Predict the structure of Arabinogalactan endo-beta-1,4-galactanase.
Amino acid sequence: MSSSSITRRGLLAGAGGLALSTLLPSVAEAHGRSTTLSVRGADLSFLPQLEEAGVRYRDLAGRVRPAERIFAAAGANYIRLRVWVDPPDGYSDKARALHLARRAKRAGLKILLDPHYSDFWADPGKQPIPASWPTDLPGLLKKIRSYTRELVRDFARQGTPIDMIQIGNEITNGILWPAGQLYLPDGTQQWLAFTDLLKAGRRGALEGQPDAKIVLHIDRGGKLGDTRWFFDNITGYEVPFDIIGQSYYPMWHGSLAELQANLIDSEQRYDKPVLIAELAYPWTFEDGDGRGNIVGADTVLPDADRFPATPAGQAGFYEAVRDVLKQVPDGRGLGFLAWEPEWIPGVGWQPGAEASNDNLTQFDFTGRALPSIRAYRRP
């Protein structure tokens, strides 16, 4: 997710109207419903900056503790770490990611690595090539492979080997634009260039760590037709990968019933486990720093009648997401990673900007954990 406003571009709507939701419980039961989630985690990439700004976190009992320890004590077993190539000072570069990885490992957390292959935010609306990288496709094929290999090795060298790695962040519309941009302004679709870059990144990751699991991450959580369009092409171009990753923000990506339909369809259609790689939900429509938020009172939440924007409503939403994942057959709904649930006021999405998601966190504006933190428990 990018914290700046994003125009979410739809790819294909045709298959999205399939009325699967009424069938899903029986489908899952026929194949064996999971009783636990193997991935329960959070992207905490802003955490070091927030601590430097003076933010402190308290658990449900009011005890001050490092945020990663609060999540681990609640049952989390994964952290997701964002890496930018050359970001503004203080933001998520490799050195900061390595430092946070050491903290995470000490807390008993596994690692999902999220290289953006960009100097700053990369998402469906923008995927800029790092300024120091080549811009031609042959040069980028070499660079993404070598960069990924060395990045993964750096984590292993310090005793914090990764467990999973995404080849890019929310790559619905391509990667490393314009060379790997999927949809050019003139209507051209560059599937070959895009998928060649994915294959090169994957090779680099496995050269760095042969047992790392490869995630392909898009932002179409409840959009079945769009997901089919993307992964039908990915499989058609024979891109090897292990896990389908989705962002799911219901205000953009549909209802929980649509999410459930899409996850089950993906598992069955592609024979891959599915993971919610980004997830968030409001606990209030108030604005913690008074400087504007992406999600406010005018935001349409598809399941707001059941899950209003309150601490209890947020907690209920996370429980419902757990139930959706458990409906995926054979335990292949791996789990979820909340996106920056610690990002309360203190650090802007860019230098000098607002904390534009401070009402989507799992801590209140003072840093005290909210009831939704219980969603990380096992089973």
